[in-house]
Amino acid sequence: MDNEEIKQKLLQIENTDLEFTVTMTGKESTRVNGLYKPETHEILLHNKNFKSDMQLIYTAIHEYTHHLLTEEFLAETGGKLPMKGSRVHNQAFWAKFHTLLQKAEELGIYKIDIEESPELKELTEKIRKEYMEVNGKLMQEFGKLLAEAHKLCEKANIRYEDYLDRVLCLPRNTAKDITKLGAVEVDPALGFDNMKKVAMLKKPEDRAAATQSILGGKSPDTVTELMKKARSGDPREKLEKEKNRLTKTIEALQQRLQYVEESLEQL
Questions:
Q1: What DSSP letter does each residue of 21-57 carry, written as one string?
Q2: Residues 6 or more apart in contact with residue 252 via CB below 8 angstroms
Q3: Among residues 11, 13, 61, 10, which one has the least CA distance to residue 33?
Q4: What's the order of all strands across the beta sheet hosting 34-37?
Q5: In this predicted structure, what is the pLDDT of residue 248?
Q6: Contact 52, 116 (CB under 8 A)
Q7: CA Rg, the chain, in Å?
Q8: What is the SS3 assignment for 81?
Q9: Helices (H) and strands (E) in the chain, counts
Q10: At residue 87, what are phi and psi to the nearest 5 degrees?
Q11: Which residues have C-beta within 8 Å of that of residue 148, sequence separation ≥ 6?
């Protein structure tokens, strides 16, 4: 492929109104496979790094994602570029990138075909069945045990937080995530981290849809971004979040006020 062929393939995946260029540098780099220059809208690909066209296209789509998000940012800010040093590989980036990869696969422009490697296919099944799914089931059982421990702590007049902190030495947020898995129906085939994401959804139908998306091949980042968009339209959830934020602020201010008052009394 030459530079123009790569550019046309990218435009097939998703069009852009912002002109850009693609340049294969003819170089090898140990630091990066490619980069995008937002000021000049250039995609540079260190093509000596790649052993196949699929590897090259993968990186080209990665850099093109930066271009498309830059185009969106320019439209939103009236032509201002993102600040230098700002985080570019955020969740929104990965969600967009994986969506473009899926489009590229549907168009036959890109593919990740583990069928070509029987050893990799066999290993993948082993990882999924013997590790991800087994670990998911263990975490579900763990969550139920933590919920039972919570009840027993209350019965014995023991602070559950102290039990977590100094008996189990288990971070509270971790315990909260694991306990949630024991309280809702989540498919352990997702693996622990994906189970945590899905368990955050309140409605069973939303959990089922997210589970189907992940098991169907959508990346966790893509599903998380879709979940965020779905939740952003719920006015009740927005108000609940604001209430929680204000409550925490008020509690912090009250603690500070108490400290200042006590300090004044001692002067």
A1: EEEE-S---SS-SEEEETTTTEEEE-GGG-SSHHHHH
A2: none
A3: 61
A4: 21-24, 42-45, 34-37
A5: 87
A6: no
A7: 25
A8: coil
A9: 11, 3
A10: -70, 120
A11: none
pLDDT in tens, 48-60: 999 999 999 999 9
Which amino acid belongs to residue 184? V
Which residue in 33, 46, 36 sits closest to 16, CA to CA?
36
Pairing outcome for strands 21-24 and 42-45: parallel
Does the CA dihedral 171-172-173-178 come out positive or negative?
A: positive
Record the tokens describing residue 35, joined without a space. Answer: 């980069």
Q: Which two tokens stand for residue 125?
A: 């099944």
Compute the Cα dihedral for 12, 16, 18, 23 and give only its sign.
Answer: negative
Q: CA triplet 95, 2, 41: central angle to 5 degrees?
A: 50
As a 3-state breakdown, the chain gives helix, strand, coil percent values, each rounded to 5, of 70, 5, 25
Per-residue pLDDT at 231: 59
- For residue 266, give Cα distances in angstroms to 6, 126, 256, 259, 262: 73, 66, 16, 11, 7
CA 74 to chain CA centroid, nearest Å: 24
pLDDT band at 161 (very low <50, low <70, confident <90, very high): very high
- pLDDT tens digits along 9-48: 999 999 999 999 999 999 999 999 999 999 999 999 999 9
b/e sequence 114-125, b meaning 16+ C-beta within 10 Å = eeeeeeeeeeee
Query: Averaged over 228-253, what is the pLDDT?
Result: 77
